[in-house]
Every structure is written in C-alpha cells, then in structure tokens.
Design brief:
This protein has 226 residues and is an alpha/beta fold. It has one domain. Helix content is 41%, strand content 17%. The chain is built from 7 helices and 5 strands; from the N terminus they run H-H-H-H-E-E-E-H-E-E-H-H. Helix 2 runs antiparallel to helix 4 and helix 4 packs parallel to helix 6. The chain starts with 11 loop residues before the first helix and ends in a 7-residue tail after the last helix.
Length: 226
C-alpha cells in the first residue's frame, strides 16, 4: 500500500468489476446511513416485542436492562460520530461510513454472527473499524473488535483487489480510564478525545487511488451482502 505497484488495479473499473462505479441509488449508498442506525433498528424491534417491560421500567424508574444497554450503545456511537464529523470537516480526504452491517454465509451454509460496525473509517493512513463503548458496566474484551476488523479486511480485500490492512479500534466514551480485559493484540484502545489526534498522527499508507477504490467498494451495500 502507499505506492502505485503493479499489484494494485490500474482503474476503478478494474478494481470493482462486480460493483457499480457510477452513481448509487440512495438506498444502496451506505454514505446515507445515520449514526447508530443498526442499534436504533434493534432498539425499535426490541421495544415492539417487549413493550410492557419497557413501559413498566419507565414508570417504576427501573429500566428494562436490554433497552437501557442499547440506549447507552447508541449514545456512545453518536458521540464518536461527532468526533469523526469534525475530522472530515477539517480533512475531507477522510471518509466515514456509519452503521455498516453484513451477514455472510459460511461454506457450510451456516450463518455466523452478523457483522456490525459502528463506524468504518477510511483515510490516508488506512482502514479502521470502530467499536464504541459508553461508560461500561461490564467487562470489555477485544475479541469482537478484532474479529470485526478481520472480517472487514477479508470482505474489502476480496471486493477491491487492493492489499488492505484493517485496524480495530475500541473507543471509550464518557470514561477517562478505558479498560479491556484479556489479550488486546491488534486492537487499539482509545478514548473519544484521543480518537481524532491518534488518526491524524498515523503515517500515510494509501495512495489517493487506493483510498478512492476502497471507499467506492465500502459504500456499496452489495459489498457487504451475503
């Protein structure tokens, strides 16, 4: 990465033969996703299915635990989105996709846990997946974040034919002492205030052409479809 080597496709059409390279329909373009869309959808579905429990929690002051956990996650994702908007406003070369989801099938036909990315960040220094944690009430491990980055790397690498290394980030919101239990190899742990300075401090790894190819693939919903 970072050089126009023969291994990198020469044109966008070469890199993305199976994807549309023109204008995407609104519903197909993931740049239209709002922050925490996947969590808002999940909370709405949960509320419909457990309306009595949710209403009882509001009336008694003892909230439904699952509903509260989703609300906390939504608050965390929105806070991180705000930080990233400021980065993009300062440096438009950075690209951010919100609420990226995928449910690929395995060779056996079984469906693994759905891939859900709070944010996918693409910039001169590379590609990053972000998992947001808002005032954690339980132990946080790096396993989910690491697995999400690995699967994202496989999906984007297969779609673009560009050598990609995806870095997993866990971003803590409303806490100054982020803590991750167990191994955190390959996962960077940051606070929301540290996120943008950390991204800006990374050295350039992608050429403009590589960055554009990756972004075009990432924003097309078909890249993430089963």
């Amino acid at each position: 990465m970072g050089t126009d080597s023969p291994s990198v496709p020469v044109t966008v059409a070469d890199a993305l033969p199976n994807l549309r390279t023109g204008r995407l329909a609104r519903g197909d373009d993931l740049t239209n996703n709002r922050p925490a869309k996947h969590l808002l959808d999940e909370r709405s579905a949960y509320t419909r299915q457990h309306l009595t429990s949710v209403l009882r929690g509001r009336l008694t002051g003892r909230p439904d635990e699952r509903h509260r956990a989703l609300s906390r996650r939504i608050a965390g994702v929105r806070a991180v989105a705000q930080e990233l908007w400021e980065l993009v406003a300062k440096r438009p070369v950075w690209r951010v996709l919100q609420s990226v989801r995928s449910a690929p099938t395995t060779r056996s036909g079984q469906r693994p846990a759905e891939l859900e990315l709070d944010q996918l960040v693409i910039g001169p220094s590379g590609v990053y997946t972000i998992h947001s944690v808002y005032r954690p009430t339980q132990d946080v491990t790096a396993d989910l974040a690491r697995d999400a980055a690995r699967r994202t790397q496989e999906i984007l690498g297969r779609a673009t034919r560009v050598p990609i290394n995806v870095q997993a980030l866990i971003v803590f919101v409303r806490t100054d002492q982020p803590r991750v239990e167990g191994p955190r190899d390959g996962v960077e742990v940051l606070t929301a205030n540290e996120l943008v300075p950390w991204l800006e401090s990374r050295r350039q790894m992608l050429t403009e052409r590589e960055l554009e190819i990756i972004h075009l693939a990432a924003r097309d919903y078909r890249t993430w479809a089963p």
